[in-house]
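#onboarding

Welcome to the new folks! Below is a worked example of what a typical request in this channel looks like: someone posts a single protein sequence, and someone else replies with the predicted structure as tokens. Don't worry about understanding the tokens yet, we'll cover that in week two.

Example request:
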Amino acid sequence: MPVSSSILRQCLDQAAKASGPLLGRCLDEAIDALQQAENKSGKALERREISDAWRELLRLTPAWTGRYPAAVQLAIESGGAASAPTSPKPLRPSSLTLVDDDQVAQNIESSRLSQQLQPLLELQLAELDGLVCSALGLPAVRPEQNPLRPEVFARALQGLMAEAGAEPAALALWTRQLATPLGRELGVLYRSLVELLKAADVRAVTYRVLPVASGAARAEARPSAPLPLGPATGAAPLGNGEGGGNGGGGWSSPPAASNDARMRNPSAWADLSSYDLGHPLMQEFLYRGGSQSQAPLAPAYYERVDEELAGLRAAPASDDAAFDPGHALAHRHLPAVDRPQRHVGTDSPLDGQVWGRWSAPRERSLERTRLKRQAERVGQVLGLEVVRKLVSQVAQDPQLLAPVRESIVALEPSLLRLAMVDPRFFSDETHPGRRLIERVAERSFQYNDEFSSEFKAFAGSVAGVFNGLNAQPEVADDQPFREALEGMEASWKAQDSQEEEQRGKVLDGVRFAEQRQAQADQIAWDLSQRADLEDVPAVVQDFLFGPWALVMANARMNDTRGQIDPGGHGGVVSNLLWSVKREITLRQPSKLIEMIPGLLEQLRGGLAELGQDPAETEPFFKALETLHRPVLKLRARHRRDTLDSAAMPLPELDADPALQPAPRQQPKPVQQFWMGRKELDAAGFEDTLPSDHAELIDLRERAAVAPEGVEKPQQPVNAEQVVAALHEGCWVDLSSKGQWLRAQLIWASSRGTLFMFISRGGQPHSMTKRSCEKLVRERLLRLVDTHGVVAHALQTLADDMPRQPLAA
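Example response:
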């Protein structure tokens, strides 16, 4: 293929030429990251090591950027030639004697760096592998034959590091800080090379299915004994993700006992030596269940399994990076909502005191590869691969606290064993294996601080259950997961029983107040239709439509005897309306004077039953006294009830329009229902008070300040949009009394003007819409994006998958 060879040579030259500036940008970013790490470190020894590392890296930058293209070119030529697309030979024990210790150490460091690059380049590399292998003339994807694979760039960079003669601590720091920028820069390079190959009309190859004529052919292809332990070369990681030393795509041979079964059904040996989630096989498995799921596996699959397993066993356990408990504590001083995201991946070391054997990435990789060795069908291999990718995806979910993501990573061995007997368990939303992950994640949304005692207790219980599942060497069905899920649900239910009772009481209170307001609105409308409402001052009409309608509604809702007018509050209305009509009362002052004491007592008693603070209605009673004053003045001057009204002019009232006779009015629309002081306190309205008879407003700044040392965002927040997005069951981070709490919205009024949140311990936090919007603008209330973690991970994988037509 002369055209393909020409375009491939052009790609190789372009990659080598671009590698110098590419490395320069990576070094600048790594130096900057190390300087920041030095400033944040609180340990003198650590600061000195970091300082020495970035200063040495700064000194080496000019030389490295100049020499890197040549090193890459050399690595490309030695790592895979376009003219000779042959399979690499397995490394044998005799060849190890020709490799000195420095070379072995360099290979190990290069492998570690390439492992860190793989997850960052998974999507770009999958497409590039297919195109490059096509340009090489290969019939199927062979990632190890790609001369531009990440290992090539990692090996070239590791060679420069080895020549620098730096201390091991500096080398580790360099590798850690260079991995992410190098992965990002290689991703950009790979995309440009993909476009170049596509423009030359190169079409990608994919997996292949190989027919086998007889069992003898397989017997020839399969080694009669396991390969000697030693570093693997040219191992093809399954799915192009997290392969190599961490075993993310390890291979393994099947048990000897199952060989005969495969030999009797040799019609469709599937060579899964290389594929990715973008290939039709995986698409069909995800979307349709996989028509090839029951197909047996080809000999090439098991050969690569052996190579991978041998490489994993040969790698020393010391290769695993040690778990650093100080890394998590570095940002503990920051508010929980402002701490940077801590990286967790399938290759991350975990706390050995919590997770024991499975804390080491190498042990998890070995278990993953051993299970692949036991696989007999295509579906099992695909199930293992999807579980690995799902675990990796969940481990990156930013909405989960780091210890929760670490627990999912730690559970991978047990999930992989489940996939061997039920490869597509993840597609069933009701499956105990999937539900266990979902419920742990859902439960963890109650917490926003991994250092709180409540969260530590939760994480400890999860670790106990997950360790128990991992301790089972075999999984026959979903029963262990079902029992684990039921046990955790029962424990959580017992923990929540007291909180649920408290929550129920609080909810009953606000729902009662909302229903009372609805009934009061109806009573107010009925009162507005009374014939004797004409010429009643506005202040009295407002009182009847507001507080007194609430009094009547409260009495009716608390009535247990079915009375027509419980408490006699309806009868008070007629007396009140008569008492404020000046033309009538001045003709019968004695009747009014006799009525006033009882009327006032009934009014104040009804308001007291409602729970109304006397200060709230004091303006009304002062206005009522003013309306009654003319009669009281007449009483002082005349002790008889025979006054001729035409003989003396009527006393003048105050000029206040609210005290003047007014036409019939209609009740004013009530936006938010009324609650008494005790009801407000019980519902957690710490920052709200009733302003009049129907409205709640927030107090002026009540110690609601941003945490010290945290800058407010420059971009304004659309508070109205955030509040509109609130719905019952959603979670928020709420600043209350100087602490950041994770709270759940458990109730919103029917008109969306009042909201009640509940934080840990059943503590209610209620607020008006206006108060809520103010907190959002001040970044003191932040909506938390929660979702089903498995469903979200599956959707992300599907969205990232390059769609290809599926066979009918």
